[in-house]
Write a structure and sequence with these properties.
This protein is α+β, with helices and mostly antiparallel strands and about 130 residues long. About 25% of the residues lie in helices and about 20% in strands.
Length: about 130
């Protein structure tokens, strides 16, 4: 668990948030969503892969997003080596509406969890999943 840097002392445990499919962005929504922090997780390995923030949780992954490519490469590597994975995404929908405070929490979480898909942590993990899908 991690105590978010906020006045309320909120504790965020990404592994206890409601799990969604990583293809959630293809679904039809009646609204754009809310400000949120989100976490891409391999639940099989209990590994937090990516931490992100958004002002519109239901719109965030529409279009281009580097993490989609990283996930495709991650899945392919697991498939190639006959390893199990259970990829999902979880949203914490209590993030500040204002961008800077939300990004400050995101940055703290990225450094706390050392999530390998966040570029801030590539110095620890390298970049095995960022390349093309060939």
């Amino acid at each position: 668990m991690f105590e978010a840097p906020s006045e309320s002392g909120v504790v965020i445990d990404p592994f206890t948030l409601p799990q969604q499919n990583t293809e959630f962005w293809r679904w039809q929504f009646s609204d754009e969503g809310t400000a949120a922090l989100y976490f891409v997780i391999d639940y099989q390995s209990e590994l937090l892969l990516y931490v992100g923030e958004t002002v519109k949780s239901n719109q965030r992954w529409k279009g281009e997003h580097d993490c989609k490519r990283y996930l495709m490469n991650y899945r392919q590597a697991h498939y190639h080596h006959d390893l199990d994975s259970q990829l999902g995404i979880a949203f914490w929908r209590h993030a500040p509406e204002e961008r800077r405070p939300r990004q400050a929490i995101e940055s703290t979480l990225i450094h706390q969890w050392r999530s390998p898909f966040n570029k801030e942590n590539w110095k620890f993990w390298g970049t095995p999943f960022i390349g093309g899908s060939d």
